[in-house]
Design goal:
single chain; 202 residues; mainly alpha; Arc Repressor Mutant, subunit A; Tetracycline Repressor, domain 2; 4% strand
């Protein structure tokens, strides 16, 4: 299935623009400026099309942001997948946090995490959009909880270990790390946060 559509131009023949590339450019803008501070005019300019073409392809700004979140959610699974690469739960959690730090500090995109930033601003977002963002956070909570449950079954964590609470703690930690990365926190201090979190988990 083609991911290119024709965008009308003021002069000359219509040209095609790539939907995947348009989503990537929109993602970067939303990530950098947030939903509230990003206009469709800015997105249209970044993509290189007129606003009517954006509406035709993605709908309004809220619908476009939903598509961006869906695209971004693939990145969110990477730290969770890291939990499953190690049998030892401490090594797994270390890899989970480390990947969050590395990803948030990577070059080529804004610092931090798009979802964490959107979650922090959720009271300013349209209610349905805020609800969807919360659902993505809950999915992450549940995925981490499943890994912790396995560690309990394997005897690596106590039988009465608060799996749900610890999962929420780890996801909250990752959001806090992402916000500190966005604010320019040094990698040295981020490593100190990771070490403290590992000590808290025993």
């Amino acid at each position: 299935m083609s991911t290119e559509i024709k965008a009308s131009q003021a002069r000359g023949r219509p040209r095609c623009f790539n939907l995947e590339e348009a989503l990537d450019r929109s993602l970067l803008l939303f990530w950098q400026k947030g939903f509230q501070n990003t206009s469709l005019d800015e997105i249209a300019e970044a993509v290189g099309v007129k606003k009517p073409s954006l509406y035709a392809a993605f709908g309004d700004k809220e619908m476009l942001f939903r598509k961006v979140l869906l695209r971004y959610s693939g990145k969110l699974s990477e730290p969770v997948q890291a939990l499953d690469r190690y049998d030892d739960i401490r090594e797994a959690i270390n890899a989970f946090i480390e990947l969050g730090i590395t990803s948030g500090c990577s070059h080529g995109h804004p610092r931090g995490c798009l979802l964490a930033s959107a979650f922090a601003d959720s009271t300013l977002l349209p209610p349905n959009l805020a609800k969807e963002i919360k659902a993505l956070i809950n999915q992450a909570d549940q995925a981490v909880a499943q890994r912790l449950k396995k560690a309990v079954r394997d005897g690596q964590l106590p039988a009465d270990f608060d799996v749900k609470g610890a999962a929420k703690f780890l996801i909250t930690l990752m959001h806090g790390v992402a916000l500190r990365i966005r604010a320019g926190e040094s990698r040295t201090d981020l490593q100190r946060i990771k070490k403290a979190a590992l000590r808290c988990l025993g």
